[in-house]
């Protein structure tokens, strides 16, 4: 198994945010997708992907339809996707994906978390290069031969594929998302969920006390309503 498998395993073992926050994040994804490509999922590939993820998260269909309708309203604020970078204590690099309708607020909040937890907020590009930007897809495992599927999907950019209790996972470079989505749909394969990850190229092992220092900062960042995802180079224990 490769780095994507180990990364996913570590992330799954970690605590996940409350369901309410998951729904809030999906709601923002819907707004971004609709503003970008319109409210029709048949002609908006990004919106199709978000709807699949909403279904996987057990978000009620009414909530999804309401979010799409709201996002279509011209008065609804658009969310800008902004990336923040920095260092936690003990040299751990942190990459933060946000979706915000008020960048000044988000910048001030993120900076305050770093300052309060002995971290350092970095400049653009200071740690992003330490992470591989990937896309992922999950499909049902039933009736699929993983090795055969891997050989077929290599041509569309898939670099790592494996089966786990959730189905078959595929990982590929970020830019391969559209080609893989299109191919899976043309084959009539159900996409259970899809998304993007930033996988650290190298991780650093810390002792328990040092891990606690980093976790303190991570928790503050993850609790912020504007934060969508947080990635770091600390080795998960």
TrEMBL record:
One of its GO terms (molecular function) is DNA binding. It comes from the Bacteria. The keyword S-adenosyl-L-methionine does not apply. Keywords: Cytoplasm, DNA-binding, Transcription, Transcription regulation. One of its GO terms (cellular component) is cytosol. It is found in: Cytoplasm. Residues 4-73 form the TACO1/YebC-like N-terminal domain. One of its GO terms (biological process) is regulation of DNA-templated transcription. It holds the Pfam family Transcrip_reg. Residues 79-234 form the TACO1/YebC-like second and third domain. InterPro entries: Integrase-like_N, TACO1_YebC-like_2nd/3rd_dom, TACO1_YebC_N, Transcrip_reg_TACO1-like, Transcrip_reg_TACO1-like_dom3, YebC-like. PANTHER family: TRANSCRIPTIONAL REGULATORY PROTEIN YEBC-RELATED (PTHR12532:SF6), TRANSLATIONAL ACTIVATOR OF CYTOCHROME C OXIDASE 1 (PTHR12532). Belongs to the TACO1 family. HAMAP family: Transcrip_reg_TACO1. NCBIfam families: PRK00110.1 (NF001030), PRK12378.1 (NF009044), YebC/PmpR family DNA-binding transcriptional regulator (TIGR01033). This is Probable transcriptional regulatory protein GN157_12320.
């Amino acid at each position: 198994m490769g780095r994507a498998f180990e990364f996913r395993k570590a992330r799954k073992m970690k605590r996940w945010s409350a369901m309410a926050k998951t729904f809030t994040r999906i709601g923002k994804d819907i707004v971004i997708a609709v503003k970008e490509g319109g409210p029709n999922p048949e002609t908006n590939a990004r919106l199709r992907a978000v709807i699949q993820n909403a279904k996987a998260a057990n978000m009620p269909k009414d909530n999804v339809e309401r979010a799409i309708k709201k996002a279509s309203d011209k008065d609804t604020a658009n969310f800008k996707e902004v990336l923040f970078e920095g260092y936690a204590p003990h040299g751990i690099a942190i990459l933060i994906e946000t979706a915000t309708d008020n960048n000044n607020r988000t910048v001030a909040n993120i900076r305050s978390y770093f300052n309060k937890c002995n971290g350092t907020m970095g400049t653009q590009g200071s740690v992003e290069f330490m992470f591989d930007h990937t896309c992922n897809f999950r499909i049902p495992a039933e009736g699929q031969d993983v090795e055969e599927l891997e050989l077929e999907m290599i041509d569309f950019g898939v670099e790592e594929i494996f089966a786990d209790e959730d189905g078959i996972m595929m990982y590929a470079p970020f830019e391969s998302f559209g080609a893989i989505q299109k191919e899976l749909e043309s084959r009539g394969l159900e996409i259970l969920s899809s998304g993007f990850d930033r996988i650290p190229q190298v991780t650093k092992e810390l002792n328990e006390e040092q891990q606690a220092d980093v976790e303190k900062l991570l928790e503050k960042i993850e609790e912020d309503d504007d934060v969508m995802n947080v990635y770091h180079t600390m080795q998960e224990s």
